[in-house]
Write a structure and sequence with these properties.
By secondary structure, the protein is mainly beta. It is built from no helices and 37 strands.
């Protein structure tokens, strides 16, 4: 007997039969309008399905020399920009830091490497880098003479041309940590003071980086802005202060709603990381939680820390939530929406076994495919872990230093799903395809699917396929 695989593309297969027992041996697959029959003589065959997505082979970029990578963005031409800090690890606070940038073309070849430095001052990156309309780059940075003291950093904007040369730099005040595209320009936000009265501050900038308006919003002394996103009719920002909290503002800076989602009577030990606006006017709140089920958490607490996702409505009320994790600790990494309305979730897992709702044993980057309501379709484990992710034209990219402290490594995840169907005898052994030409006794069944299908068969050669007219 020899194990073989046959792939059927664009085949229609009905979900109803995926877990059913076949009353007789035969079945038929509809392929592009034709019927290809595969059959045997055994009864009560089991057909099961699992969903898979594709993770590409690793690609190493040894030219990335940053002491610390802050992030990566995909560029319009299909290339990528890796950005972060360069510093002397043996004298991290006494030798000024520099900003380091590595630009790759679409083929993954280095186009240029740039460093930005200031005399006797440390500089680093505060927020994501933005590619502007004509290929220039805008980065929210910060500078200090004392990098060991967190409250000494002051922000500034650095604009580079498409070749990484400095066009301009502009001081913008104190405490800004978030930068996004907004309306016809940009929006920056942060916490400009650590003393009473404590407040959040937002500035709207034009494309020339001139201030168009500024607003101050009151905040608790322990609060930090953890994310800022553009929404239809305004913007949202997340607050890291214990429980998940998100504030929605109108374009005129009127408060639309301020929603907090405590998971304990004291608030909860939850760490909000990302906000994703949804098409219904609400949003998904994404982060990590270590609290038990209760209050605003209706899904399970599997142990340690779990990835916890909460759906808020257009009025800021909770609709539902989902937890993902094992009995160890699993930390939120990223969430990207697919074209079909589903999502790709990345969790940094420290759970060794397959337990909780984690179906794969091992530690590393646990990647899950979720449907539109965050039910798990498929999962994959990458070990060691990858710390960075970004969208590209090829799919979701992940990157990091999983195998070396000096070699930056990337992989492409194609989030589109394919169905893999397995056929088994009643005793659990793979079904052996009958290669006889005698069709007597066959009881064909027709079923359909919307994904590519790969059927694994154990059979004695030669194998025959029958086209049914």
């Amino acid at each position: 007997m020899k194990s073989m695989k046959r792939a059927f593309r664009n085949t229609l297969v009905s979900k109803r039969l995926f877990s059913d027992k076949l009353p007789a041996a035969g079945f038929v697959i509809s392929l592009l309008g034709s019927l290809i029959a595969i059959s045997g003589q055994a009864a009560n065959l089991s057909i099961s399905r699992r969903m898979e997505f594709t993770v590409g082979s690793p690609q190493t970029w040894p030219q990335v020399t940053n002491s610390s990578v802050h992030g990566v963005i995909a560029l319009r031409d299909g290339g990528s920009l890796v950005y972060g800090e360069n510093f002397d690890s043996s004298a991290v606070y006494s030798v000024p830091w520099k900003i380091g940038l590595t630009r790759f073309n679409p083929e993954g070849v280095v186009a240029w490497v740039r460093e930005y430095a200031e005399s006797n001052v440390s500089v680093s990156i505060s927020s994501d880098c933005i590619e502007e309309a004509f290929g220039s780059l805008l980065i929210l940075c910060r500078r200090t003479t004392r990098p060991d003291l967190s409250n000494t950093w002051t922000p500034f904007l650095l604009r580079l041309d498409s070749s990484g040369n400095v066009i301009e730099k502009r001081s913008i005040g104190a405490g800004y940590s978030e930068l996004i595209k907004y309306e016809d320009g940009y929006l920056i936000g942060g916490s400009p003071t650590e003393m009473n009265p404590y407040y959040f501050q937002f500035q709207k900038l034009g494309t020339n980086l001139a201030q168009q308006w500024q607003t101050n919003l009151s905040a608790a002394a322990d609060s930090l802005i953890c994310c800022l996103v553009n929404t239809p009719g305004g913007y949202m920002y997340g607050i890291r202060s214990g429980p998940y909290r998100v504030v929605k503002m109108a374009t005129n800076n009127d408060l639309v709603w301020d929603a907090k989602f405590p998971t304990t009577s004291g608030g909860g030990a939850d760490d909000l990381k990302q906000i994703i606006p949804t098409s219904d006017g609400g949003c998904l709140l994404c982060g990590t939680s270590s609290t038990d089920t209760g209050f605003n958490k209706s899904d399970a607490h599997y142990g340690g820390y779990d990835c916890w996702l909460l759906k808020a409505s257009t009025t800021g009320t909770k609709q539902w939530d989902r937890s993902f994790g094992g009995t160890g600790s699993d930390f939120f990494g990223f969430l990207y929406q697919r074209a079909d309305g589903g999502y790709l979730l990345g969790c940094h897992t420290q759970t060794f076994g397959a337990n909780g709702n984690k179906g794969i044993a091992g530690t590393g980057l646990w990647v899950l495919s979720l449907d539109a309501t965050l039910n798990k379709d498929a999962e994959h484990l990458l070990a060691p872990d990858y710390n960075y992710s970004w969208n590209s034209t090829a799919g979701v990219m992940i990157g990091g230093f999983p195998n070396s402290s000096t070699n930056f490594e990337t992989r492409i995840i194609d989030p589109s799903l394919r169905a893999v169907i397995s056929i088994q005898n009643p005793d659990g052994t793979p079904y052996a395809v009958d290669t006889s030409t005698n069709l007597n006794g066959w009881n064909p069944m027709i079923f359909g699917a919307t994904a590519d299908i790969q059927i694994s068969e154990r059979m004695a050669l030669p194998m025959k396929f029958y086209r049914v007219r």
